[in-house]
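Re: the multi-chain job from yesterday

Posting the exact lines I submitted so nobody has to dig through the queue logs.
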Amino acid sequence: MNRPCKSLWSRTIYFLILVTIAGIVLLPIFYFLTISFASNYEAYQFPAKIFPTFSYPARLRYNADAENYTLLIKKGAEFEAIKTTSDVLDFSLYCKNQLNVLISTPSVQALFDKAKSADTVIQIKLKKDFFRNYVVFFILAEGTMHALFNSLKAAGWTILISLVLGGVSGYIMARYKFRFNNVFSTSLLVVRMFPAVALSLPLVVYIMRMNLYDTPFALAIVYSVPNIALTAWITSSIFKGISVELEEAAMVFGATRLKTLLTITFPMAFPAIVASSLYAFLAAWNDSITALIMTNNNPTLALLVYRTVGSSTIPNLPAAGAVVLLVPSLIFTFIIKNYINQLWGNVAL
Amino acid sequence: MSYLKLNSLKKIYPNGITAVKNIDLEIEKGEFVVLLGPSGCGKTTTLRMLAGLEDVTEGSIILDGKDITLLPPRLRNISMIFQSYAVWPHMTVAENIAYPLKLRKMNKQAIVSKVQDVARICNIADYLDRYPAQLSGGQRQRVAVARAIAFNSKLSLMDEPLSNLDAKLRISVRTFLKEIHVNTGATTIFVTHDQAEAMALADRIVVMNEGSIEQVGSTREIYNECGSLFTAQFMGTPPANIQRVVLKSGHGRLIVTTKNDETTTLDLGELKTCPDMEHLMGKEVFLAVRPENIDIVTPNGINETSIEIVEPQGAYTILVTHVLGIEWKIMLEGDVDMQIGQKMSLKIDPCKVMLYDAQTTKRIYFA
Amino acid sequence: MNVSRRSGFLKSPTWFLVPVVIYYALFWIRPTISVIIESFTDRSGAFGFSNYVRLFSQEAIRIAFLNTVLFTLGSALLQFVLAFALALWLNKKFRFSNLMLFITLIPMAFPPAAVGILWKTGLYRFGWINSFLCSLGLMNPANPVDWMSFRNLNAIILLIIVDTWTVLPSVVIILLAGLQNLNKEYEEAGWVFGANRFQTIKDIVFPIMKPTIITAMILRMIAAVQVWLIAVMIFGYNVVPFLVERIAYNVDVITFAKYARKDAYTLSVIVAAIVLISVSMYLRVSGEKQKPGEIT
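And the result, structure tokens for all chains:
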């Protein structure tokens, strides 16, 4: 309903609600992102920062009496001494491991010389290797890249199995009336909702017998159980919307059924195929419980990220892993979002 | 002081589109006024502004002395029948009728008896305990009518309530609505694009086009004295025959001819039967002749033409022929036995033709 | 199009469903039956309820059950109230409503493991929740609250809040779709005939939306019953037991304990039974109309 003039008061309230909700959603995300870029040193700082930093304003002091050098980092209004050493290598390693700053030993030597020759403390700017956490987590840590590939493989197999089996079922459900139609679609619904836990546990035994334990393919088998049903549901609703006469026209003009399907039906159903693939991808990418049950040395990325929480006490590296886990999921969910809205009203695309 | 006054009502949407340009209207208590026009003419927008469901950009609405322009709908004391009837699906018929009365805090006994009364009037007394999903479209519509009657408001608004009914039902419900109006005397504003509906129901018709009022008048006035070319084109089934012509006189008769073909002429009758038209000679006008105002006589040299198509309609017959180069329709009473190709002469009553200025499309009156 | 009679029995399209049926027989029917049977046989092979009896004699399991119920009902209630309010608000299509929908959708796209990490980094003593509160002046930096030390009901409330942050948008979407399918004239009729804003929502919008709300809530509860990852990531095992958390515990931590396998199997049958009951309720309410599954 329209009020003749929206008062300034109600507009302000709207704006406040808007900002609060946006804040509740975005604030944790910003903090979380910043932590993923934070060096070990920064991760210990409290209160935590909301935006990441790219460099440290710092000072280097030569201690004449001990003949060593002290590194001071700006904290608030003051500079805090965090490392004292005379060894160039020690200093360089400290910068790398604790500050995410990559600085070669000759450069350290140069800084030392500069500090020694200066009268007072020298100002230096230490530039952060911004993505260091990600590099450490994925390239330097063992098994992370491997887990990433496992996730991708599992997702790929899930998409393949779901599309083939689900797409065919969807097509047949849409085009042909047969006696078990209702039973079939109800059981598809039940299968979609069935808890994966109850499925994964007994399946481990069979998977072991098939020598497939601890493989992404085995995971895909489990992930596909609900996803075939989901794909069948999505595609059948689209195929119903594609008039049979379009196919019949092609066949009248000489195309075989297979060719009709490939050149006419499936291209028109393309949005549904994309949506189903994305759902299948997300099912495999996001899951942890099935991976927990069915893998041992070959975890998926989601499982690996879960496991890192226990092991390390500072959250910056796990956060980096979580961000990488997050990015494909975010992208694909937003692509699907449009389809969700259209599918909710049972309206064909 | 009129009961309902619309003063310079204007509606401009945020995206810049002007739906209603300038509506000035005065309506008496108890009148049945129909807003008539093609889609997009602003009639529904005007109605919704009256209801309070659309903001008024400029202008005011005064109902029974009270300025209601800025009031929310529930404080305006109006009832409305929506195009989709808006009969609440989760309430029974009785609850639907009772809900507005409950909101008014009427006492329970009074509500029950009122519901029974209107249900009887609207012929839905048997369905009081049913849900809308169990009713047909026509029955649901009667529930909407009953709800409005029970509410007994100052102003009754109806937004194309007959559009979703099939043709036969539309006619019978039309009569029903007129009966209700005769019995209750409620001031009613009715929106439709169907001119037959408008003519049957209205005390006065407001013909609208592109956000403005074209003409206001009784059915007779709107039909026979069309003030603008638009009204002449809009009213009438089949529509009036309209052509751009030049007026000439010859041998004491009023002749019209097309601009580019001076040889083909149409004889409109003796000049002396028409009021003073000397000053209009040579003028370019739009000529509008209603199909029922054309007569057929055996060929006598005036306006000779041949029949191309015959469309019998039972109560009347439509003949299609070509006049002045374009297709004209003629309406004759009853069943007329004519053959395709048969020659005939057209006799037109000059007092019944309507002329419109070619530039302004405004009606040229003879008197 | 009917099953073609002319092409012959072998070419009948129903044959194309055979692979799917085989797939489900192998990878759904067989495991389901096997897990049910396993839950009803004890370690020596005798048939009976011994597994169930043993489970419920353990306090941790009883607590897990209670926690699961509290969490499910609590989160469903909170999420319904917030989602309904948000959906009503976003339905107005004010200037930023599309942007707002986009923003609130972001948590929905997070994998559960990522959500766990995000909140863990917030909830520990030097995490960002306390950082934020300190920067607002609401907390003394010298004395930060240790959220992860919460136990029992407080811990469950914390988890409900985290869960709401994550899944609220998916509920909002369902309710919003329902609202948008609602014929606007039902509300307008309410306004015309005397109802104010609140009465219109209470007497007209809410009752008509009931089926949509119930189906959304059932879907939500089916997911809530299976909560475990955020509980374990934030609090660790054993601190706030839930049904599936117990299963994960048996599988991951005490894998070779005497009854670990049996307990895991039996618990999963219980979870499956709860889910199936909810699904049948969902089917009854929503009739033939099915909605696609959630993302989480």
